Every structure is written in structure tokens, then in C-alpha cells.
Amino acid sequence: MTTETRIRIVGADEAAGLAGPLAELLMDCVAGGASVSFMAPLDKPKAERFWMKVADGVAKGDRILLIAESGKRIMGTVQVVIGLPENQPHRADVSKLLVHREFRRLGVGARLMAEVDKVAAQAGRTLLVLDTATGSDGERLYARSGWIRAGVIPGYALKPHGGATDTTFFYKQLSAGGAPDGRAKTADVSHAADAAQAIEPARPADAAAIKALVDGAYSKYIDRMGKLPAPMQADYGALAASGDLYVLRAHGVIAGAILLTQDRDALKVNNLVVGHEDQGKGYGRELMLFAERMARSRGLRALTLYTNALMHENIALYQKTGFVITDRVAEDGFDRVYFRKPLVP
């Protein structure tokens, strides 16, 4: 699906008029199992009443309503609640991130959350708080977007179709410029094909987001291997501090990462990972091309890498992209297959 998305703030004069389409969005999310304060089935009058209350809050200046739209279709929405007690003028609650099921896996949620940082900073807020159902797609998105888990409350809410769900609470601290603390706004090392993407050195503050990305991508191998894959055991804070770890950000969210070190006359790809939700978007290819450019810039003759012998999918993929098997080694408790790809000058 090719979809042009626009993210914007809904003005006080139009919020009430959008109650109908926003109600349909909310109904779709509840029907799909999203734990967002409502039980299924949710009827339209009840959903519209909720959005009329939101519109009233927008009119009073208590909240900021953002929508993602394509043409006349509302794809998603999120709210930044700034009408908080007087002893919390620095804080905002982030509420009701909703993306219609038709527009999932297009980066809509990530773009809405990136805009949340900007509008919250413009409102003078430096601490953001939210909660989400534990194990949900939202939880994975927030972890990848630099939010920090504060804790989990078991059985906090009911799922819309019945049954209790745990709830994870997150927070994010912003600098005065709107970026998460510890993430200086530096020039990108490499722009990917899309102007909204950039590959840059990872920062220690990115460690939790990278770990969540790795866990989501590699957890499927645990049963096959009978233990945690090596990437799930790494210290990503230390790797980021080493300067060898790079991340691909798409619309401000970490969508992939690559760990590169020199290996004699070659550049070694120690790990390349793309988030489960972002696979199939070409990010893995962009990261590998980035590695090739770096190798050439250092005058190196090849890329090398390895994968676990039980990760059959990776072995087939690397062979299709020009890598040749050079060795099979048992090391660090794992059976590994080593590859090398010569670089054409």
C-alpha cells in the first residue's frame, strides 16, 4: 500500500467536527483487542461522546490532539494531556495512541510518537508519562522509541473482549529542544534512501531501545537453539559507548542496528538486526550498504560476518547476497557459520 501520511495538530475549532471519524477509529481499535479503556462491542454514540469530551479539553487548552491522515481518512491519533495539577507544570501524559488496523505496519504510530516529543517540548514539557498493555505492539514501539519502563502492574485493566491484562508504565525525559536527554542532535553519518531515515552512531541512552529490538527479532530462535542467542546476551550500553554500534532511525524511531568492527583486511558485521515490525522495508539492505561504504572508506577489501548454524534463514539470505561460507566453528558455546564477501573496488 502506498500511502502519503500527514501528521498535524487538530485545532479547537475542528475537534468536535471530527468526533465521528475518530469514533470509527476508536471502535476499530477496540474491536481489534486494544486495551484503551473501553470494552467490546463499543457503539458509535458512546465513542462519539468520548471524543466530544476530548474536543472540550482541546478547546480549554488542557490537551493537544494529533491526527495522522491520508486524504480525508484518519489513520491514527494520539493526545498530549497538559492540563495537569499546578505542581506538575513540567509534565504531560500521553494518551490514546490509536492506529486503524488498515494502516498498521506503515510507521504511523512511530510518526505520531515522534511528533508527540516535538509538541510536548513546544508546550514546555520535559517529562512524559504513558501506560500500555504489557506485551502489546504499543509496548514494543515505546521501548524502541526511547521510552523507559518504570514498572508493570499485574491485572491492571480488562481486555476489551474479557480477561485481565498487565499494564506497563513508561516515561521519557526531554531536553529543552525536544530530544530525549542524552541524545544530542548531531549530523547524520549516513542518510538512507528515505529522507526520513538516517544511520548514525548509537548512544548509550539508546541501549534499552536496541535491546528491545534485538529481543523481538531473536526470541523466535530460543526454542530452536535451546538457549538465548548471543545477541540477546550483549551489553548494548557498552557497545554504544565503544563507537562500533550504529542505528537506523526511521521517523525518529530505532528500526535497526548494526555492530561493526575491523577484522584484519575486512570489516566484520558482528550483528545486524531489524525490528520485527519493520522487516520487509529494506532497512536490512540499507544497513548492509552502510557497512560496505564504511569498509571502502577504510580501504578494506571485504565484509565478514557469522551466524548461528541453526539460523538457516540467515545462511540462505547471506549466500543470496554475495557472501561465501569460509568456515564452520564451535565457539563461545555456539556453532557458527562464517562468511566473507569481497568488495569490488
From TrEMBL:
Q: Where is the N-acetyltransferase domain?
A: 7-177, 197-344
Tell me if Transferase is a UniProt keyword of this record. Answer: yes
Query: One MF term from GO for this chain?
Result: acyltransferase activity, transferring groups other than amino-acyl groups
Annotated PROSITE patterns: GNAT
Instruction: Quote the InterPro entries the UniProt record gives.
Output: Acyl_CoA_acyltransferase, Bact_Acetyltransf, GNAT_dom
Keyword annotations of the record: Acyltransferase, Transferase
Which Pfam families does the record match to this protein? Acetyltransf_1 (PF00583)
Record protein name field: N-acetyltransferase domain-containing protein
Organism listed in the record = Bordetella genomosp. 8
